[in-house]
Amino acid sequence: MTRQEIKERIEKLEEEILDVKGRMPAHSVKPHIMRELFEREDEKAELEVELKRLSG
């Protein structure tokens, strides 16, 4: 992935994270929703590390 592609994917993941958080009820969050949130947050963190690596 290029730096631009990584930046675009990070932006998309941020939107998806906000969407997932918006669907979370105040109580009794379902495991699949938490898993969905964690997967996106993990991918975002990995891409941020990769972006820093590419930036030098």
Order of helices and strands: HH
Q: Beta-sheet strand percentage?
A: under 5%
Please work out how many helical segments DSSP would assign.
2
Question: What is the overall pLDDT average?
Answer: 95
Shape type: elongated
Uncertain regions: pLDDT < 50 for 5+ in a row? none
Radius of gyration: 13 Å
Counting structural domains, the number is 1
Largest sheet: none
SSE class? mainly alpha
Can you tell me about this structure?
With 56 residues, the chain is mainly alpha-helical. It has one domain. 82% of the residues lie in helices and 0% in strands. Helix 1 (3-23) runs antiparallel to helix 2. The chain is elongated, with a radius of gyration of 13 Å. The chain starts with a helix and ends with a helix. The mean pLDDT is 95.
